[in-house]
Amino acid sequence: MPSIASPARTIRSVWLGPLVSAFVLAFLFVVATLFRRSAWADEARPFMVGLSSAAAAIITLQGARTAAARRGWSGVIAGALMILMGIYTLVHVLR
Questions:
Q1: DSSP string of the chain?
Q2: How many other CB atoms are found less than 10 A from the CB of residue 59?
Q3: Cβ distance 66 to 75 under 8 Å?
């Protein structure tokens, strides 16, 4: 009688989080630059500051979660990179 095995759980790479975070922050930087040089510069600034701050906070929290997960040194390093990206972005956006 064939055994019915449960589907294998796929484990994502620990480096996927920092890569996606870097792409999100780069995209937000390009969008903010385009808005800054447009006619909507004054209206778009509070929106972009709020959006970038929210993204940075989420990236920082996800980095802490990644660092706290038991995935070895690579998880700690990836989490620390995300935390640094998030904090740097918060400081840059809010100054």
A1: ----PPPPPP---TTHHHHHHHHHHHHHHHHHHHHHTSTTHHHHHHHHHHHHHHHHHHHHHHHHHHHHSSSHHHHHHHHHHHHHHHHHHHHHHH-
A2: 26
A3: yes
- Whose structure tokens read 């920092």? 18
Low-confidence ranges of the chain (pLDDT < 50): none
Q: Are 75 and 69 in contact (CB under 8 A)?
A: yes
Dist. CA 3–CA 8, nearest whole Å: 14
**Residue entry with tokens 């994502």:** 12
Return the amino acid letter for 38: S
